[in-house]
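Support reply, case 0932

Customer input (verbatim):
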Amino acid sequence: MQVVIGVDSSTQSTKALAVDVDSGRVLGEGRAPHTVSGGAGRESDPRQWWAALAEAVGRTGWADRADAVSVGGQQHGLVTLDAAGEPVRPALLWNDVRSAPQAAALVAEYGAGAWASRAGSVPGAAFTAAKWQWLREREPEAAARTAAVRLPHDYLTERLTGVAATDRGDASGTGWWTPDGYDTRLLDRLGLAEAMLPAVVPAGTAAGTVLPGLPLRAGALVAAGTGDNMAAALGLGLGPGVPVLSLGTSGTVYAVTRGRPADPSGTVCGFADALDSWLPLACTLNCTLAVDRVAALLGRDREAVEPGGSAVVLPYFDGERTPDLPGASGLFHGLRQDTTPGQLLQAAYDGAAFSLLAALDQVLAAGGEGPAAAGLRQRQIRQWLMRQLPGRGRRLRRQLRRRVRRRLRTASCC
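Our regenerated output:
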């Protein structure tokens, strides 16, 4: 029996799954939590990811017998390593919006159209290039000590193999990767040498093998891995034009497409997938975590919603990425004397879902899917999403849409 272990190193925890290759049967699983800083930034010590990986794979019961392992990780995060391979500082995570001014400056310098054409995406605060620029400006001593730059999953792959490797999918979220390789002109502008970055390993090629003395069997094959959304698309076996809506710490909607995306509006990121296609994606910063926060503020269980009412909630507690409002904050609107806590909680669900639903057709169009297919997929996924949310069968009313759009326009002017 051949056994492989898949690892998901996400924002809040690491999960591991041991699977029998021939039957697909799950043999064991494990999980270990991460700590993320609060306050103005969102940071994590990469060494805790490594400790969590060891704990999670150990709990599968197959770490010492696995034939191969692959790591999928949260996208965009900036991991800076010194000459000894140790973290210079905690990693800047994808949902750290302090780099919004640096992202805006880079877009202004090169133009949104040029970014979309060359990198596939107009970088926002989440992108690694913006985070590196923030580090150079705000912590120049840390930037000067940096000998290597990695993404979160790259860091873990390198700890397993000793090889600096990444894949096209996760690399496409940095801002400095193009289909022709790393953008050396941009790297020069950012004060980075290509030698500081991991090699991009072709799909289907192993990054290396597990080193001796580690939590996994020495000599086991280690795949190049990829970003979390690319890994999900690969695992689902997505065909072109089939959209996925994922509700987690962030909310994402994406699809595998044959055409390379290039959205100069910045709503859709033109990522590569883990194979040889593309993965247009729209992402919101505030999804289930924001809903949980509203539920905690109200002192209610997250399922304790009630229908009706006129409340609108924009749960932008960490700023927002879609729409691009990194300086925004949460907003409660339309409260009345008879507004109930359950109605407010339902409004939080609606607000978390709104931006993703609005971006659905743009994601499909960005990858070259026709408008008829996009409309059909949008209707199907709307119906599915609204069935998953409390208050089954409830649709986002036109009145809610008008109010949300009006508040978005107000927030964008502030």
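We compared this against your earlier run and they match. Two observations from our side: Residues 341-366 form the longest helix (26 residues). The chain has two domains: 3-231, 238-412. Please reopen the case if you see a mismatch on your end.
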